[in-house]
Structure prediction request, 333 residues.
Amino acid sequence: MDTFNIREKTEELEKKILSPYAAFSCDAARENAIEECNIRTAFQRDRDRILHSKSFRRLKHKTQVFLSPEGDHYRTRLTHTLEVSQIARTISRALGLNEDLTEAISLGHDLGHTPFGHAGERALKQVDSEFEHNKQSLRVVKYLENSVGLNLTKQVNDGILNHKKRLKPMTLEGMIVNFADRFAYINHDIDDAIRAGILRNDEIPKEAREFFGETHSKRIGSMIFDIVDNSYDNIIVQSKEASRISNELREFMFKSVYLNPKAKSEEGKAEGMILSLYDAFYKDPSVIPDDRTGSIEEYGKKQAIIDYIASMTDRYVIKVYSDMFIPVGWKVY
Prediction:
């Protein structure tokens, strides 16, 4: 098969079948121009660059809610990312938007998340009050991965930066990921909390169970159907009732799970480890591997250390901390 025009045909097809409000691949732009691929569109290449990155692979050993869970079925930051991608792609396809852009943003949105989930984020916030995982995710794809960044399109970069609730992405695809992230974590965190014995299904607010459904799959399906039914033109929106009940369900999860002493009993230790490592690295930054951080000369010592710690997995933090602070018994040969 002649591959020369496949990308161009895909770009032409997008204009025929996608919504006029979609982000079209032919309009993708990079800070550093590169030769176009004959087969893949710009957004497809971005998705592939993220998927094959080391930062993406490390997500499998980063906490979602429960620190370093030993059970096989608890979510990690990687499985959260994949669930966000599935939900976002379903919504994007239903609304006639660019599924490739949606997938690329979804896969990249948490690349900068810290070890030990939000406990790690809180620790680094004590070092730098401006630290946020969405900003760190953008740093990963712009500067840190492969030591030079991934040179993604501005549409993907923007979606990664603006995937948090209070922010507004430049594309509808980015807005869909913004919603899909919330739909995913609220529902899979309920599922994991029930699995952990922190929560019972009948403790979920009655109105939420009646409106969205009694099971994990029904709740996700209801949220997807609602946003598809209520979005129009260049507006991505939930119904007022769904939005209200979703917010109340999120508040319930904070009280019952995210701030639950039983679920979060080890987070103080995790924060302590990260802060101890930061202090140690600040005293001797020479131990930081070059492929995990930007250069100290370019970004400054504090930022380079933050970049390194944010890149760590849960188990790597524990290993490095143990190597640096836990004495090893004398071996007799």
Remarks:
- The two ends are 65 Å apart (CA to CA).
- The first helix runs from residue 6 to 17.
- The mean pLDDT is 93.
- Residues 46 and 309 are 25 Å apart (CA to CA).
